[in-house]
Amino acid sequence: MNQTDSLRIGEEKGYIKLLNDRNRIHYVAPDKNYRFTDPEEKVRASFYVELIERFQYDQTRIDLEVTVPRRTPSDSADIVVFQDDDKKTPFIVVECKKDGISDAEFNQAIEQVFGNCNSLGGHYAAVIAGNTRRSFDVKNFEPGERSQNIIAEPPIRYGKVQEWRYLKGVPHLELTVIERGDLIRVLEKCHDTLWQGGKFAPTQAFDELAKVLFIKIRDEKKARRDGEPYDFQIKTHEKPESVANRINSLYQEAKVLDPEVFTENIGIDDKLLFSVVTHLQGISLNQTDLDVKGVAFEKFLGNFFKGETGQFFTPREVVEFMVDMIAPYHEERILDPACGSGGFLLHAMDYIRKQASEYHDKESREHYLHWHDFAEKRLFGIEVNDSIARVAKMNMIIHDDGHSNVISNDALVDFDILYKQHSEFQKEQFDIILTNPPFGAVIKKSELPYLEKYELSKGNTSQKTEILFLERCFDFLKWKTGKLAIILPDGILTNSSLQYVRDYIERHFRILAVVSLPQIAFSHYGAGVKTSILFLQKFSEQEYNRYQDAIDQIEEKNRAIYTPQIEELENERQVIIKKGSPAQVDVTENYRQQFISILDNIDALNQKLGKEPTKKVQNLSAFFFPEIESTPTREFELFDLQAARAELKTQTKTLNDLEKEYRTTFKAAADPVWESEIKTDYKEKIDVVKEEWTDKNAADIRGWIRENANHPIFMAIAERIGYDATGRKDPINDLDVICEEYRKFTENPDFFA
User: Residue 382 class from Cβ within 10 Å (0-12 exposed, 13-18 middle, 19+ buried)?
Assistant: First the structure.
């Protein structure tokens, strides 16, 4: 019985009356009035009704604010159930605290109720702090005992204490369905218990909470007959060690059945786990309405991650808008390759759940299968942070279900790595991608070699993640029908240096819509970058190939124009460097005449002997007198062949000695600074040509695409989006209007054009 139901029943049956616009409460039997605006009073009123309705105690034997004797300073018990009509013999003493108190405050309340119970001579004591409750057998144990005398709950109508408090299908003993605010408080209490004021890192505390929540939900879904106890609870006289052993056993069983959810054991001690079970044992996560669970978990995540870890997630209003614009169908496969806590996946599931109501009766099995099969088989997510991936899985489990298709990995790694982890993560497999990729992070080729395989990083040693995600989304989507809704920084749409990214988009996708978001869209998460949402549809394979063929022809045409220009500049550079620095040119000129004389002699002797000049002679002749015709020396005509051979040998030795001397002198005259300047100068000239070539390619391709793929694009600017810069609700949300206008546009784009 939750607090709202308890108060309603109490009013209907006349146990309590709410007065003065519900600012005061009147307890009818004890005839006492108190201020109802006090959170503790709401807890007391709820449990007061529960004592009458569920525990079957006569309201005339229940009193409030009972004075406790021998207490210094003077104290009073919040609620006392007596054994007699004269209210002389206390039986149960209750201390009530507001929901959400800390563990230290709860333990202090335990000491307070023990003091009151012992002083009053009561049999049983209970501390009630919202959904967190603990009861004790005080009379039959030593005064200082606080663990062995824990009982499942106070006895019903003076009877025997029950071993188990929560039994399946038994009225008043079944788990309680709670409201959103109560669920948020329960989650926060659990996290604070695990965090211990800083002894655990916040993310570590959340990891442990996710494990416990996982076990709690599995226990609720476990097959058991009506009347059988739930395992996730504290039974009478059970120590923390016993509870921890049972919870850990449940966890180990679950790990075997579902090894992808959690790989590590529960890492908290028995007493902490005991406290968390105290917070959670009485509520039903499985039966609580999906919308309640969704909003509660989302708010808890937002508060926790925004405040504790610096992570940020896509606001609910933006997510809902993107899902509504894409309008998924229950047979389509949806992916978020940067899924965070799973917001896009969950809202897509919610969209299909609402869609199911259009086709089937809400209580029918067909309705359930319509959206549940979609959740289980068609929702997929990838999250690089292992802790956040567990959050996404838990979020999916709470929403029932699809968690098995969420994996922890870098979505940009090679496809074979993703396939080995989960066989569904392959190219061209998804109908829809909804994503808000990480902005600004830079991936370096030296750190992650897969970068070189991306078209959008060719020629770069690094690239921004959001740019790579564009290409990865293209790879994941099905040809022709695949749709992408992606949030990108406005720089991709406006910066001249990123024109190549815009060109990539136009070459690979049909642009359906562009919606500009205000600067404040992510500011309350600490991210101030201006963003827009792009809605794209992947070309068919035939369209893509036609585009690539046209692009190849354009690039080939321009290659024929610019390649000769680059080759000419490279040849000029080689000739200049080969001639050498100015000092080396002087060296060459000083040696030129000597080389000409010797080479002329060798040429004449070769002709006399009918021999071809050696390769060295040819090279030196070409270098020292490329434009001079060799003239035979007459004196060698008078030599006989034997003398000519001897003279050729002499002249060849002289040439070798001269060349060695020349090369030594030439090398000594080298000027590295001059050579570096020449290389830099020509590199700049060549780069200018290459840049002109690239720009010409891009311009020609852009022109061809716009000429051959002209279609109207829906464009809109959202100025107010349902929340302000601090995250507070704004009654105006332009996104709702934009979505309606987009529907009209898709039906008649020519009208908008």
Answer: buried
Q: Roughly how many angstroms between the first and final C-alpha of the chain, as a whole number?
A: 58
Global model pTM greater than 0.85: no
Residue 674 φ/ψ, nearest 5 degrees: -60, -45
| Burial class of residue 447, CB neighbours in 10 A (0-12, 13-18, 19+) | exposed
Q: Which residues pair with 25 in a beta bridge?
A: 18, 34
Secondary structure of residue 690 in the 3-state scheme: helix
Residue 583's nearest CA partner among 519, 716, 674, 477 is 674
90 in helix, strand or coil?
A: strand
What would the pLDDT profile of 341-391 be if each residue is shown by its tens digit?
888 998 999 899 888 888 888 888 888 888 888 988 899 999 988 878 877
Q: Which residues pair with 134 in a beta bridge?
A: 127
Find how far residue 647's CA is from the centre of its chain.
Answer: 85
- Write the CB contacts of 121 (distance below 8 Å, at least 6 apart in sequence): 89, 90
Task: In whole angstroms, give the CA distance from residue 680 to residue 121.
Answer: 97
State both tokens at 344. Answer: 């896009």
The number of beta carbons lying within 10 Å of the beta carbon of residue 330 is: 19
* pLDDT per position as a tens digit, 319-339: 999 999 999 999 999 999 999
| Separation of alpha carbons 288 and 341, rounded Å | 20
SS (H, E, C) 449-500: HHHHHCHHHCCCCEEEHHHHHHHHHHHHECCCCCEEEEEEECHHHHCHHHHH
Q: What is the pLDDT of residues 711-731, one digit of tens each?
A: 788 999 999 999 888 778 889
